Amino acid sequence: MTEEPASYRPNPTLKRVENGFESVLFNSRWLMAPFYFGLVVSLAVLLFKFGMMLWEFVLHVPYAKESDIILGVLSLIDVSLTGNLILIVVFSGYENFVSRIDPGGHPDWPEWMTKVDFAGLKQKLLASIVAISAIQVLKAFMNIDVVFDPSKLAWLVGVHLVFVVSTLVLALSDRWGSDH
User: What percent of the chain has pLDDT over 70?
Assistant: First the structure.
Protein backbone atom coordinates (compact mmCIF):
# COMPACT_ATOMS: atom_id res chain seq x y z
CA MET A 1 0.00 0.00 0.00
CA THR A 2 1.41 3.34 -1.01
CA GLU A 3 1.11 6.31 1.25
CA GLU A 4 -0.76 9.37 -0.04
CA PRO A 5 1.21 12.55 -0.51
CA ALA A 6 0.69 15.11 2.28
CA SER A 7 -1.20 17.40 -0.12
CA TYR A 8 -3.99 14.80 -0.44
CA ARG A 9 -4.51 14.23 3.29
CA PRO A 10 -7.43 16.18 4.70
CA ASN A 11 -6.54 18.80 7.25
CA PRO A 12 -8.21 17.72 10.52
CA THR A 13 -8.88 21.33 11.56
CA LEU A 14 -10.53 22.17 8.23
CA LYS A 15 -12.57 18.97 8.42
CA ARG A 16 -13.86 19.95 11.92
CA VAL A 17 -14.75 23.44 10.63
CA GLU A 18 -16.50 21.91 7.62
CA ASN A 19 -18.46 19.46 9.82
CA GLY A 20 -19.41 22.27 12.21
CA PHE A 21 -20.57 24.48 9.34
CA GLU A 22 -22.60 21.64 7.83
CA SER A 23 -24.16 20.96 11.24
CA VAL A 24 -25.19 24.62 11.55
CA LEU A 25 -26.67 24.52 8.03
CA PHE A 26 -28.51 21.29 8.72
CA ASN A 27 -29.91 22.48 12.05
CA SER A 28 -30.96 25.83 10.60
CA ARG A 29 -34.01 24.04 9.24
CA TRP A 30 -35.48 24.39 12.74
CA LEU A 31 -35.65 28.14 12.17
CA MET A 32 -38.67 27.36 9.97
CA ALA A 33 -40.63 25.78 12.86
CA PRO A 34 -41.83 29.15 14.24
CA PHE A 35 -43.09 30.06 10.76
CA TYR A 36 -45.23 26.93 10.69
CA PHE A 37 -46.46 27.66 14.22
CA GLY A 38 -47.37 31.17 13.05
CA LEU A 39 -49.37 29.64 10.22
CA VAL A 40 -51.22 27.48 12.76
CA VAL A 41 -52.05 30.67 14.67
CA SER A 42 -53.26 32.24 11.42
CA LEU A 43 -55.46 29.16 10.91
CA ALA A 44 -57.03 29.81 14.33
CA VAL A 45 -57.62 33.46 13.31
CA LEU A 46 -59.18 32.25 10.07
CA LEU A 47 -61.43 29.90 12.06
CA PHE A 48 -62.58 32.85 14.15
CA LYS A 49 -63.33 34.84 10.99
CA PHE A 50 -65.14 31.83 9.49
CA GLY A 51 -67.29 31.57 12.64
CA MET A 52 -68.19 35.25 12.41
CA MET A 53 -69.04 34.92 8.71
CA LEU A 54 -71.12 31.80 9.35
CA TRP A 55 -73.04 33.50 12.17
CA GLU A 56 -73.74 36.57 10.02
CA PHE A 57 -74.74 34.31 7.10
CA VAL A 58 -77.20 32.31 9.23
CA LEU A 59 -78.75 35.49 10.68
CA HIS A 60 -79.35 36.96 7.21
CA VAL A 61 -80.64 33.79 5.48
CA PRO A 62 -84.34 34.36 6.22
CA TYR A 63 -84.27 37.75 4.49
CA ALA A 64 -81.70 37.05 1.78
CA LYS A 65 -82.21 36.58 -1.94
CA GLU A 66 -81.03 33.36 -3.56
CA SER A 67 -78.03 35.11 -5.08
CA ASP A 68 -77.04 36.46 -1.66
CA ILE A 69 -77.19 32.94 -0.20
CA ILE A 70 -75.00 31.63 -3.03
CA LEU A 71 -72.53 34.48 -2.48
CA GLY A 72 -72.48 33.73 1.25
CA VAL A 73 -71.82 30.05 0.65
CA LEU A 74 -69.07 30.91 -1.84
CA SER A 75 -67.47 33.18 0.76
CA LEU A 76 -67.51 30.34 3.31
CA ILE A 77 -66.01 27.97 0.75
CA ASP A 78 -63.35 30.55 -0.04
CA VAL A 79 -62.30 30.78 3.62
CA SER A 80 -62.41 26.99 3.94
CA LEU A 81 -60.12 26.56 0.91
CA THR A 82 -57.74 29.10 2.40
CA GLY A 83 -57.68 27.04 5.60
CA ASN A 84 -56.93 23.91 3.57
CA LEU A 85 -54.12 25.80 1.86
CA ILE A 86 -52.60 26.73 5.22
CA LEU A 87 -52.77 23.11 6.39
CA ILE A 88 -51.10 21.87 3.22
CA VAL A 89 -48.27 24.37 3.65
CA VAL A 90 -47.84 23.61 7.37
CA PHE A 91 -47.76 19.83 7.10
CA SER A 92 -45.86 19.43 3.86
CA GLY A 93 -43.48 22.29 4.60
CA TYR A 94 -42.67 20.92 8.03
CA GLU A 95 -42.35 17.37 6.71
CA ASN A 96 -40.20 18.38 3.72
CA PHE A 97 -37.99 21.03 5.29
CA VAL A 98 -37.85 20.53 9.06
CA SER A 99 -38.51 17.02 10.33
CA ARG A 100 -40.53 13.92 9.60
CA ILE A 101 -43.83 13.60 11.41
CA ASP A 102 -44.55 10.21 12.96
CA PRO A 103 -48.21 9.37 12.24
CA GLY A 104 -47.99 6.25 14.41
CA GLY A 105 -50.80 5.94 16.91
CA HIS A 106 -53.09 8.22 14.88
CA PRO A 107 -55.56 5.90 13.09
CA ASP A 108 -57.34 8.85 11.43
CA TRP A 109 -54.12 10.41 10.11
CA PRO A 110 -54.71 11.54 6.50
CA GLU A 111 -52.39 9.61 4.21
CA TRP A 112 -51.38 12.61 2.11
CA MET A 113 -49.84 14.49 5.05
CA THR A 114 -46.65 12.45 5.06
CA LYS A 115 -46.52 11.78 1.33
CA VAL A 116 -46.58 15.23 -0.30
CA ASP A 117 -43.18 16.02 -1.78
CA PHE A 118 -42.11 19.48 -2.92
CA ALA A 119 -43.48 19.02 -6.46
CA GLY A 120 -46.79 17.80 -5.04
CA LEU A 121 -46.83 20.73 -2.62
CA LYS A 122 -46.42 23.19 -5.49
CA GLN A 123 -49.25 21.54 -7.44
CA LYS A 124 -51.59 21.46 -4.43
CA LEU A 125 -50.82 25.10 -3.64
CA LEU A 126 -51.47 26.23 -7.18
CA ALA A 127 -54.62 24.14 -7.45
CA SER A 128 -55.92 25.76 -4.25
CA ILE A 129 -55.01 29.22 -5.50
CA VAL A 130 -56.81 28.52 -8.79
CA ALA A 131 -59.91 27.35 -6.87
CA ILE A 132 -59.85 30.45 -4.64
CA SER A 133 -59.38 32.66 -7.69
CA ALA A 134 -62.25 30.93 -9.47
CA ILE A 135 -64.50 31.57 -6.50
CA GLN A 136 -63.58 35.28 -6.58
CA VAL A 137 -64.49 35.44 -10.28
CA LEU A 138 -67.73 33.55 -9.63
CA LYS A 139 -68.62 35.88 -6.74
CA ALA A 140 -68.02 38.92 -8.97
CA PHE A 141 -70.15 37.34 -11.70
CA MET A 142 -72.95 36.51 -9.23
CA ASN A 143 -72.87 40.13 -8.03
CA ILE A 144 -72.82 41.61 -11.55
CA ASP A 145 -76.38 42.95 -11.36
CA VAL A 146 -75.59 44.92 -8.18
CA VAL A 147 -72.15 46.27 -9.03
CA PHE A 148 -70.88 45.95 -12.57
CA ASP A 149 -67.30 47.07 -12.90
CA PRO A 150 -65.98 45.74 -16.23
CA SER A 151 -62.42 46.75 -15.37
CA LYS A 152 -62.47 44.83 -12.06
CA LEU A 153 -64.10 41.80 -13.69
CA ALA A 154 -61.49 41.84 -16.47
CA TRP A 155 -58.69 41.95 -13.89
CA LEU A 156 -60.21 39.08 -11.91
CA VAL A 157 -60.58 36.95 -15.03
CA GLY A 158 -57.10 37.90 -16.24
CA VAL A 159 -55.43 37.05 -12.93
CA HIS A 160 -57.42 33.80 -12.75
CA LEU A 161 -56.24 32.84 -16.26
CA VAL A 162 -52.65 33.58 -15.27
CA PHE A 163 -53.04 31.21 -12.29
CA VAL A 164 -54.60 28.53 -14.52
CA VAL A 165 -51.86 28.80 -17.16
CA SER A 166 -49.15 28.83 -14.46
CA THR A 167 -50.61 25.68 -12.93
CA LEU A 168 -50.72 23.93 -16.31
CA VAL A 169 -47.15 24.95 -17.14
CA LEU A 170 -45.91 23.77 -13.74
CA ALA A 171 -47.75 20.44 -14.09
CA LEU A 172 -46.33 19.91 -17.59
CA SER A 173 -42.80 20.83 -16.53
CA ASP A 174 -43.02 18.46 -13.54
CA ARG A 175 -44.28 15.69 -15.80
CA TRP A 176 -41.58 16.29 -18.42
CA GLY A 177 -38.94 16.51 -15.69
CA SER A 178 -40.02 13.20 -14.14
CA ASP A 179 -39.92 11.42 -17.51
CA HIS A 180 -36.20 12.04 -17.89
Answer: 89
